[in-house]
Amino acid sequence: MRILITTTQVPFCYGGAEMLAESLKNAFLEEGHEAEIVAIPFRWYPPEEILDHLLACRMLDIRESNGVPIDLVVGLKFPAYHIKHPNKVLWILHQHRSAFDLWENTGNDMAAFPGGDKIKQGIGHLEMQLLLEAKRIHTLSSNVSRRLEKYSRISAPHLYPPPPQAESFYCEDAEDYIYYPSRLEVLKRHDLVIRALACTKKPVKIYFSGRPIKPEFLNDLKSLAEELKVSDRISWFDWISDEEKQRKYARSRAVLFTPLDEDYGYVTLEAMLSSKAVVTCSDSGGPLEFINHEVNGLVAEPTPESLGERLDEIWGDPGFAIKAGRLGNEKYHSLNLSWKHVVQTLTQ
Amino acid sequence: MKINWFSPLPPAHTDIADYTARIIPVLSQVSDLTLWTYQQEWDKGLEHYAPVLSFKEDKLDWSKLNRADATLYNIGNDGIYHRDIFSFSQQHSGIILLHDLNLHELFEGIYRSQSDYKYLEMLRRIYGSKGLEEGIKYINGETSKDAMITMFPFYELALNNSLGAVIHNFDNLEYASDNNPAPVFYTPLPYANENNLRPLNSRISSTEKRSRLSLICFGYFGGKNRRLIPILKSLASYPKKDKLNLNIYGEIQFLDEIVSLIESLKLKKSVTFHGFAPENKLNAALDSADLAINLRYPTRGEASGSLLRTWNHALPSLVTRAGWFKQLPESCVAFVRPDAEEEDIHRHLNACLADPGHYRAMGLAGRKYLEENHSSETFVRNLMEFIPQVISYKSKAFALELGKRTAGKIADDFSDDYFQKYLLKRTAKEIFSWTRG
């Protein structure tokens, strides 16, 4: 089949969604299909721009290319997943969250603009209408399915992908740090981690790796660490190579992943592949689909005090950390995540 | 339900501030309410019911506005109180509480303060070449203000960009709905609530004839449509004018002209100005008056808060047989025909002197009508039923703006007529399809 993957790309912003689109394309190719990614540049501010981008997507005609039909379109992200095609299957990574689950969130960019409420209502209406054009809908995780049901009244099964380069993760003896690999942005709550570190009683050390979404964001976090007198217990790594990232996973005491209501979160799965326990929060979304408290990780309340307590707990009990990491690895393998299964599901 | 409420607030000298003060105690019981004002000072008692925020701050919390289920804007004719509220309503769409259907004075003030050209442009935009022609004549002094007000009500500007409108005159429903995609809703003007009904005093039950009639006019006399000049002329020509005295409460925009007229009509002994009066003083005056005169012509079209206040005192009132007034029961008001003001005023004065019991009964009937039709509780109940309609409309309101914006971009970016038409057709078809469901 000739398959187009439609997604949205914020220029110069590379993360899990971009990796997933690439992996999906490769998986289609490996299964003998022709596949390409169509990435629509996206800007979401001021909020009116969102509708302009949606309209632009709706004007595109991708039914065929050079007179040869496109057999299947797989839509991943808003608004690119609304590009029209008679044989469209959606694998929703997430909806435009500012209009849905993040609407009440402090710092919501859409709510901060005049007239943002009208755009929010409009997107809510359009999602319910336009999503139904798809032949089938899958989502990235149960968390995304839950939101889709809640906000758009559409029921869709989840379809988990394996993380990229799943076979490259490994485990080594732990060194003295807890690893938090993630792009530096508000929703990942690095600030919560820094505040939690200030509450710990043990000499917990954190390695952060990931590029800041804005340069000043990193400075703000560093200032906070300075202010709370925990700078000497944090190491900052910018973008690092895949090999370096896998090494950092492998040698960590545990992995920390405390986003606010993450869609899915490769970090959890990569930690499990590296046989590392995961410390997460009770409102972190995706990770909670895989982490059971005191089994293959620890779940904290999203407060500095509670998270600080969990960090002390995992730091002070290496035996539990090792055991939980092993159980996490076993759990990962029991899930039978494979790109072959993803391709079969999307093309059936 | 979260509600934002934009309004002048007491002690601002406007009926609409009092209207808000009467509604807030009831509305705050069924909603999470925030009051927004441009004023520096307000009656702190309001904060017992809802927080009061300023919308003129530099760092406005848009998220508080956006996250509400509905934002309501009180729009009346007085630019002092409503210019900023209107301006804000254009940035953040909401429900317009239309206190006057005819808003010509508000918009003339807003646009002519920018330039005559801007005013003419708005006339042309809303009313086409007829509006432009008459506007030019008006600016050149060849057409009267009253004629402009009658011909070009300008309520369309207030409703532009709105998500809904509330009116208090059923007759205006059709006008306000015409060419307006947003829902429009009628509910009687609220006045009475359990705290503000006046005790009925002994004057009301008395049937004895009066040797003198105490007349009262009150409110803000911002325009000549309050008919102060014809009222004074009618009094001057009334044969038994020595049996009358008229008390006028409220600010008069054209005071000098009125003072000169009173002198020339030799009415100084019969007419007293009190200026703006505090509540207790005005209440005492209404309690002791025999007859109120509450005329409007040309009518601005909406319900009269002054008449409801008059009824609260069971005080009979002369009203113009026009606009909202004309739908009122004959038993509750004494009508004055707009084209026979002097004749009708004289007739009612004679009748009131001869048979005061009839007019007192009229005042009591008005009070009953007020209690039955104009309670704040009814208003709030109706409003809460209307808001879900507005929320439903809001989910599609973006389409109109997107259509306009897209058409503008196409016109700007493509000079070729063929391309323009092709793109306009395609985008319009797509956007229209989004409004289904």
* Overall 3D form of chain A: globular
Please state the average pLDDT score of chain A.
96
By secondary-structure content and strand pairing, the structural class of chain A works out as: alpha/beta
The helix fraction of chain A, in percent, is: 25-40%
Terminal CA distance of chain B reads 24 Å
Helix segment tally of chain B: 17
- The rounded Rg of chain A comes to 21 Å
Task: Give the biggest beta sheet of chain B.
Answer: 7 strands, parallel
SSE string of chain B: EHEEHEHEHHHHEHEHEHEHEHEHEEHHHH
The amount of helix of chain B comes to: 40-55%
pLDDT < 50 stretches of chain A: none
Largest sheet of chain A: 6 strands, parallel
Secondary structure class of chain B reads alpha/beta
Note the main attributes of this structure.
heterodimer; A: 348 residues; alpha/beta; six-stranded parallel β-sheet; five-stranded parallel β-sheet; 11 helices; 17% strand; B: 437 residues; seven-stranded parallel β-sheet; 17 helices
Structural description of this entry:
The complex is a heterodimer of chains A (348) and B (437). With 348 residues, chain A is α/β, with parallel strands linked by helices. Chain A is built from eleven helices and 13 strands. Chain A has helices at residues 16-30, 48-59, 116-130, 142-152, 190-199, 215-227, 242-250, 266-273, 304-316, 318-334, 339-347; strands at 2-9, 34-41, 64-65, 68-69, 72-77, 88-94, 136-139, 178-181, 206-209, 234-237, 254-256, 278-281, 297-300. In chain A, the strands form three sheets. In chain A, strands 10-9-8-11-12-13 form a six-stranded parallel sheet, with helices on both faces. In chain A, strand 9 (206-209), helix 6 and strand 10 (234-237) form a beta-alpha-beta unit. In chain A, helix 8 (266-273) crosses helix 10 (318-334). The longest helix of chain A has 17 residues, at 318-334. With 437 residues, chain B is an alpha/beta fold. A seven-stranded parallel sheet of chain B has the order 3-2-1-4-5-6-7, sandwiched between helices. Chain B has a six-stranded parallel sheet with strand order 10-9-8-11-12-13, with helices on both faces. In chain B, helix 13 (305-312) links the parallel strand 11 (291-294) and strand 12. Chain B is globular and about 80 Å long. In chain B, 44% of the residues are buried. The model of chain B has no long low-confidence stretch (mean pLDDT 92).
